[in-house]
Amino acid sequence: MEVYIPPKKTYHKAGSQGELSPGGRKINGKQLAVAAAALAVLVALVFIIGSCFGKKTAKVMTTQAMADSALFAKLANAYKEETGRTAKAQAATEEELQAAVGEGKAGCILAPFTPDINDTLDTGTYHGAAVFYDTYLIVGPKEDPARVKHLGKYKAQDVLKHLSLLEQPFVHPASGTELQTKINGLLQQAGLTVGDWYVEAADDGQQMLQTAQEKKGYAFVSRENWALYGAETPELEVLNQRLVGMVDQYYLLAKPSEKEGAQSPDDAFLEWMKGDTARGLIQAYQEEGRQTPTFEVNEKDEVIEKPKEV
Q: Which among 6, 60, 233, 256 could disulfide-bond with 213, CB atoms 3.0 to 4.6 Å apart, if both were Cys?
């Protein structure tokens, strides 16, 4: 019977003659250095490629409703198809948005216009553009005793005058909300003195609508809050979808690039949002169950509303 004897493995000490791997293949110091250098280059390439892809993403801080909306998804998809870049929404509360604007924390912000945004544009922390706006709704009792449904395209302050003359309840949110700031301005423009017809609610959404239902009164409400809470107040209905003079003006802000002459991912998204593709998507967008577009697009350099401190 024959017995197989494997070849003997030999090892040599490292030195001027190099090192031998099992089986006798010689690996010298130069080859080790080349291999190490190749590995370093590979790691660097992976890092650079990852960084480049990361730098193509605009991280857009915005409201929860906008982050969850089909509109933002449509815009992000079209942006990627046309440019190869990505835009990702980061949902934030009103307080978080205000802090980000005031402290320059976010690279890109899409939010309703506020005095804080006006200030940051003046200081140059951000640059931006008015991209689209949303009008408020007039809601009230289905019986509509004030016949608000037949007022047509009345200005918001004229609606308030009409309700005050008829002493029909108008429900407004508590101080400190953006909506109440708008209403205070309207009262001043109309020269109105508040009375029993002017009823305060705890907030500008759920509580305001519930109070309007209880008092059989009227209210100005954002489309977002009506979509969220309207089903809870079946005795109310939308009486007018185009309240003139009451809008949420959305601004898109982007931080300028730190390198002179370079375009940041946030700048790239801002410029794209001002183009025809984005404008077309915004003009055509309708929320489920609505017969009219949700937003209206700003003309170039047009700002529908810049809120004032009251």
A: 233
Tokens of 253: 């802000």
Task: Give the HSE-up count for residue 186: Cα atoms under 13 Å, Cβ half-sphere.
Answer: 25
Decide the pairing of beta strands 219-221 and 26-27.
unpaired
Task: Give this prediction's pTM.
Answer: 0.63
pLDDT tens digits for range 3-46 = 444 454 444 444 444 444 445 455 556 655 555 555 554 544 43
Stronger pLDDT, 173 or 302, i.e. the higher one: 173
Measure Cα distances from 202 to 130, 168, 171, 186, 207 in Å.
30, 19, 10, 20, 6
Sign of CA dihedral 136, 140, 146, 149: positive
CA 74 to chain centre: 13
Cα–Cα distance for residue pair 163/212, rounded to 1 Å: 13
- Please tell me the distance from the alpha carbon of residue 222 to that of residue 205, in angstroms, as a whole number: 8
What number of other Cβ atoms are within 10 A of residue 187's Cβ?
A: 18
- Angstrom distance (rounded) from CA 121 to CA 191: 32
Helix residue spans in 15-111 (DSSP H): 29-55, 64-68, 70-83, 94-103
E strand or H helix at 6: none
Question: What string of DSSP letters covers 211-271?
Answer: HHHHHT-BEEE-HHHHHHHGGG-TTEEEEES--BT-EEEEEEEEPPPSSTT---HHHHHHH
Q: What is the pLDDT of residues 185-208, one digit of tens each?
A: 899 988 998 999 999 998 888 999
Which residue in 253, 279, 282 sits closest to 125, CA to CA? 253
Surface-to-core class of residue 20, CB atoms within 10 Å of its CB (0-12 exposed, 13-18 middle, 19+ buried): middle
Query: What pLDDT does residue 252 have?
Result: 94
Tokens for 120, please give them.
Answer: 């940051």
Gap between the Cα atoms of 198 and 172, Å rounded: 7
